[in-house]
Structure prediction request, 309 residues.
Amino acid sequence: MIDKTVLYKFFEGSASREEEMLIQAWLDDDTRNIEILHHERFLYDSILLNRVEEKTLLRPQKRQLLPWAITAAATLALLIVCGFYVNSILHHNQLSAQYNTIIVPPGQRINLVLADSTNLWLNANTTFRYPSGFSGKERVVYLDGEGYFDVSKDTKKPFIVKTSAGDIKVTGTAFNVEAYSKFGSFETALFEGSVDIYRENQKLTSLRAKEKSTLYDNKLYVSPIINTDKYLWKDGFIAFEKKKLEDILISLEKYFDIKIQVNMCKLPQHSYTGKFRQSDGVDYALRVLQKSIHFNYYRDDEKNIIYIQ
Prediction:
């Protein structure tokens, strides 16, 4: 386990070049270390949030500070730190093959434009590796998480997104990929153009516009895209339509990097439809669900677990 002091220096943007390289080597050594990094980041953000609230509440005021103002101050501080966090990786932390690494913190998303003018959004808890420039015959990037890609067209140099479950090959198109290795998910949704899906260098299928492929039980299924609300995450929303509570809780675990443990004898099997802003946080989402489902919950921030009962 890497020294937590080094990680915290990295989060606040004060890590040295040698310490950044040490962290990158630690991440490369074992993919499970990414989960440890996310957890430590969560603890760091929680500490920062408490400090901001304490300072705000203790400062002499002529009038009482509204709760939303406290939240705004805390959020601003978190965004500043996350800015250091991402920029530190972007500008200083390069792999031997001149690849940069971005790790998106829980509950957030990042917009990025690559050297070939490809525009993309990265969802929460996503790790993305990309080169400073594209040389050779292919444009190769690596994704563990979820990303929306609007790929700059170049028929002579295909764009390839490599994931733990399979690869997506395109020349110029718009598509969404969900491939969280932690959850074993692999779904590609195509909005424009065409894409080819590969696994171990073997072509599995091709998609046309408004089609999606989903990996289930080690088989790839192709179906039409009926509803696009699921992909509103790039606009800052988490949406679900006719989803069971179990599936909704899994989505919340992905976005906010938190374990949700259900201590109910049996989960309700009804389907639910709803939408909320990602920035509202997991507590807001659970309160919305409580309006339709009768349950209580409490958080153990030290263990990063939410208990539903």
Remarks:
- The longest strand covers residues 139-150.
